[in-house]
Design a protein that fits this description.
The complex is a heterodimer of chains A (about 170) and B (about 325). Chain A has about 170 residues and is an alpha+beta fold. Chain A contains five helices and five strands; from the N terminus they run E-E-H-E-E-E-H-H-H-H. A five-stranded mixed sheet of chain A has the order 2-1-5-3-4, covered by helices on one side. The chains are: A alpha+beta (about 170), B alpha+beta (about 325).
Chain lengths: ~170, ~325
């Protein structure tokens, strides 16, 4: 039993009760992924599994045996920040920073969803291509809370990097 | 969380062999069950992971769809046939939870999720007949803004939380179930129970029974449909009121329609009285409001939720107004 976390195979926990979040933080010491509410309400624990954003607090680690998990630690390439990480710095996409790893992983997952045409509750035409307007980003990112209220900066960072790559 | 064994089922028969043992529970995406276990509300000894079973969406020869119980919410909402032929279902799914949760949650798990009544979740501080049969109901005289106005009982005023299920109720879906005594199918609207004096039982499923698929019949006017949700914030909140509706017009009269409400009862509420009131009649705002009034004639509001029948009426009127004038979305 093993998971692939940021490209490295790691054993799954022996105790089935361990959440993916606790496994990342307590066993693998990847503390970039944050524990906020631990009940699926805040999005701080968002990670990517084969490119799809999920909540690691509601995921039992054993359920992800054999799957590829990417955390915020796995986004930088060759020592350079992921463009969205750099944009969060540039656009003040955070204040305390606690929600930031979840926001960034979530936004990367959102971009992939938009690119393959997943509609949102706001879509006028469910079959049309997605334009990531501010309103669309707000709706699609509503699972990530920011107690500091850095939402405007977060949306600016997303619009400056990810949104232009999604076909209008 | 109490300790439990975990096993991944490779086929339905294997799931049933494990799932019929006392203390066993089926595990989908875990978005509700893991939380319930952490809170001590659910205490299974053994989890049978069924996410690897029934993960396909099949087009039926008659134009319907057979949706595997293991299909993730996002996969269902983005399926081309759902977007084009059952937009009400796509919109209902997209109105629910957050994108992360929709990526995890399965169709079967969505059907079997439990109420978000505050008192159901308050293990240490509240009485709840659904959690602890016979203990009482603190919601009856408590903060009951989110609670039921139709079909409730003295024992329980909880609502069913799903958005997807409201659309499935309107769409005359069928639920396919496998169990130790064999397989069976039942109308979706018969799956969930009203609370009566057994609010601990959410559905009619027997112990060990496993939902394997949900089937949608073709609906000729399914494309002229939508789902609208009223809630305390614009996104990522459970419904105070939601309405799913599909309409077929014949000139200026309503030829046929489907209506279901969410946020009003212990089960997704198929609005047969409102449908009967409107079928064959004129598509006027007054007719829509009168139809909603007929549906909610037996409503029994609580201290904090007396706004629900009127809000449901305005929601229905807005949605039907759009659908009968071709101004959908």
């Amino acid at each position: 039993m093993s998971l692939i976390v940021n490209g490295t195979a790691v054993p799954a926990p022996a105790d089935a009760r361990v959440s993916l979040l606790d496994h990342l933080r307590e066993t693998l010491h990847l503390t970039g992924t944050k524990k906020g509410c631990n009940q699926g309400a805040c999005g701080a624990c968002t990670v990517l599994v084969e490119g799809e954003r999920i909540l690691s607090c509601l995921a039992l680690a054993v359920q992800y045996d054999g799957r590829q998990v990417t955390t915020v630690e796995g986004l930088a390439q060759d020592g350079a920040l992921h463009p969205l990480q750099a944009a969060f710095v540039e656009h003040d996409g955070f204040q305390c920073g606690y929600c930031t790893p979840g926001q960034i992983c979530s936004a990367i997952g959102m971009a992939a969803e938009a690119q393959r045409g997943v509609p949102s509750y706001l879509s006028d035409d469910l079959s049309a291509d997605t334009t990531l307007t501010r309103a669309e980003i707000q709706e699609r990112m509503s699972g990530n809370l920011c107690r500091c209220g850095a939402y405007n900066g977060i949306i600016d960072a997303i619009q400056a990097t990810i949104a232009p790559k999604v076909p209008a | 969380m109490t300790p439990f064994d975990y096993a991944r089922a490779g086929e339905v028969a294997e799931a049933l062999r494990h799932g019929t043992a006392p203390g066993a529970a089926y595990l989908g995406g875990g978005t509700n069950l893991v939380d319930l276990m952490r809170e001590g509300i659910a205490r299974p000894d053994r989890l049978i992971d069924v996410t690897g079973l029934s993960t396909t969406i099949e087009e039926r020869a008659d134009g319907g769809l057979l949706i595997g119980a293991g299909v993730r919410n996002t996969a269902l909402a983005e399926h081309p046939a759902v977007r084009q032929r059952y937009p009400m279902l796509a919109r209902a799914i997209l109105a629910g939870a957050s994108a992360q949760i929709r990526n995890m949650a399965t169709v079967g798990g969505n059907l079997l999720q439990r109420t978000r009544c505050f008192y159901f979740y308050d293990v240490d501080g509240a009485r709840c007949n659904k959690r602890e049969p016979g203990s009482g109901c603190d919601a009856q005289d408590g903060f009951n803004r989110i609670h039921a106005v139709l079909g409730a009982s003295d024992a329980c005023v909880a609502t069913h939380p799903s958005d997807m299920c409201v659309a499935l109720a309107a769409l005359d879906a069928t639920v396919h179930v496998a169990g130790p005594q064999g397989s069976r199918s039942l109308p979706f609207t018969d799956l969930h129970r009203l609370p009566g004096d057994r609010p601990d039982q959410d559905t009619v499923l027997a112990a060990g029974e496993l939902i394997t698929a949900v089937e949608l019949a073709p609906l000729s006017f399914g494309a002229n449909a939508t789902y609208r949700k009223m809630r305390d914030r614009a996104s990522y909140a459970f419904a105070l009121i939601s309405v799913a509706a599909a309409v077929e017009m014949d000139g200026d009269r309503i030829a046929d329609l489907r209506i279901a409400f969410g946020g009003v009862a212990h089960k997704p509420w198929r609005a047969t009285k409102a449908e009967a009131a409107l079928r064959g009649g004129p598509a006027t705002q007054q007719a829509f409001l009168d139809a909603a009034a007929a549906e909610f004639a037996d409503a029994r509001p609580l201290r904090d939720n007396a706004f629900k029948p009127a809000l449901a009426g305005r929601a229905l009127a807005a949605v039907l107004g759009a659908l009968t004038t071709g101004d959908v979305a």
